[in-house]
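Worked example 3. Consider a protein that binds IPE.
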Amino acid sequence: MSNQPRHIAIIMDGNGRWAESKGKTRTFGHEKGAEVVRTITTYCATHPEIERLTLYAFSTENWKRPKLEVEFLMKLLEKYLKNELPTYLEGNIRFEPIGDLSLFSSSLRKTITHVREATEHCTGLVQSLALNYGGQDEIVRAANQLCEANAPITTESLTQALDCPSDVDLLIRTGGDNRLSNFLLWQSAYAELFFTDTLWPDFSENELNDIIRKFKTVERRFGGIN
Ligand code: IPE
Ligand code: IPE
Ligand code: MG
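Given these inputs, the predicted complex is written out as structure tokens:
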């Protein structure tokens, strides 16, 4: 039996370098990157074996970037969510943000909540955008939540208290670096990791399809022997 990539997670890296290689500003790369988010989401929504797609859009560390770039990313996110509501609804895609949203402006939070609520009834792909997300921050928030409720900390209870309680099957990073950058640390315990040099704005359905094909041939042992 081949593996099914039920939960795919992607570290969408390389927008800035893609733009700079074309003599453009980094923000141009983020705009193109947002288009690729739509393409890849639609691909996953039309492949029913893929149940969940989690995309790293803004990390807890990305606030370190120049103020103008951070502001641009916030505006782009708001514009993306407003424009893409029909894509979510037509594709039967449920939007589930993960991360600590409390640091965002009230207007952006309203848009995020609106799209989440408007797609709550969708039964197809769950698309999560990781927004002000850090794996360490997520685990700390989950542990604190359990402590406050006086609940025992077990692997199961901690998993359920996370923003994203679903194990990752296939984790992809574009942009040429081989690191996790604080993404889904807990959920990737047994994920298959694929790193590609392709910069995110050049990532395509074809490349995703090739990676999934390779993923399906991997022997996953989960500590056992086959
Ligand atoms: C990823 O692309 C997008 C975000 C982190 C928001 P980068 O902006 O990190 O692009 P590079 O890695 O600098 O090329
Ligand atoms: C990871 O990319 C974060 C996102 C893709 C949102 P970064 O560009 O922030 O990661 P580092 O700094 O190269 O590790
Ligand atoms: Mg980067």
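Take a moment to read the result before moving on. The longest helix spans residues 67-90. The pocket of magnesium ion (ligand 3) is lined by residues 13, 175 (CB under 6 Å).
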